[in-house]
Automatic annotation (TrEMBL):
Species in which this protein is naturally found: Kineococcus rhizosphaerae
Free-text function comment from the UniProt entry: Specifically methylates guanosine-37 in various tRNAs.
GO aspect biological process, one term: tRNA N1-guanine methylation
Alphabetically ordered keywords of this record: Cytoplasm, Methyltransferase, S-adenosyl-L-methionine, Transferase, tRNA processing
EC number: 2.1.1.228
The name this protein goes by in its record: tRNA (guanine-N(1)-)-methyltransferase
Coiled-coil portions: none
Organismal lineage: Bacteria, Bacillati, Actinomycetota, Actinomycetes, Kineosporiales
Amino acid sequence: MRLDVVSIFGEYLAPLQLSLIGKAQTQGLLDVRVHDLREHTHDRHRTVDDTPYGGGAGLLMKPEPWGEALDAVLADPPAGARDEGPVLVVPSPVGEVFSQRAAVELAAEPWLVFACGRYEGIDARVVEHYRTRLRVREVSLGDYVLNGGEVAVLAITEAVVRLVPGVIGNAASLTQESHAPEHDGLLEHPAYTKPATWRGLDVPAVLAGGDHGAVDRWRRDEALRRTASRRPDVLAGLDPARCDARDLAV
Ligand code: SAM
């Protein structure tokens, strides 16, 4: 998978060299390229922003550097790129709220390009233009406002890259966690490790009983209960066809 990230703060993206994402690069599973938007300016001050038409507070990112920077990235496709090109991911508080489902979809792509906004965001014509050439996804981390898209890119890439085959050693762990489609999108059950008793709190006896069927049932029940109390919206979307009679009793 290739990831191209365009930003005016490339240093913010240094964590992409660490941990599992860094290791995936040394293993050849991932190729991450960070590009400086200011390389595509042509004035002495390397200006990327200007005042908004219509007035108002703050500055907006100008479209010309973005057009040049993204065209330069698109002119250098990786081997195996799709005919329709990469998905252009534009972090934005006005985008679709990022989810595990979106992470699964993006992890199936061979090439993702990220455009990190700053200031009051990017001139709207940039997204409008690239929508005519590419698949564009404006993606929000949630209903709050960050200073820039870099933190969103770190979160999105971490969620996506761990789903790329080979990145996580034990692939089964990906299907047994919160929000996983294989787990019906439920929140994960409570989990425990040794010791069996800590500060007067015991691990539920069923988990140490050796009855795998009973353990599976307990985990499913706890996942359903947790989801019902913390995320009733998720539970409401549960497909009844995926439930058995004992699920419905919880
Ligand atoms: N004026 C914009 C608005 O009100 O929607 C906010 C711009 S924000 C200060 C600057 C940049 O931070 C955005 O262009 C985007 O790249 C990033 N950003 C801010 N909040 C975000 C969020 N919730 N999710 C993803 N990216 C975000």
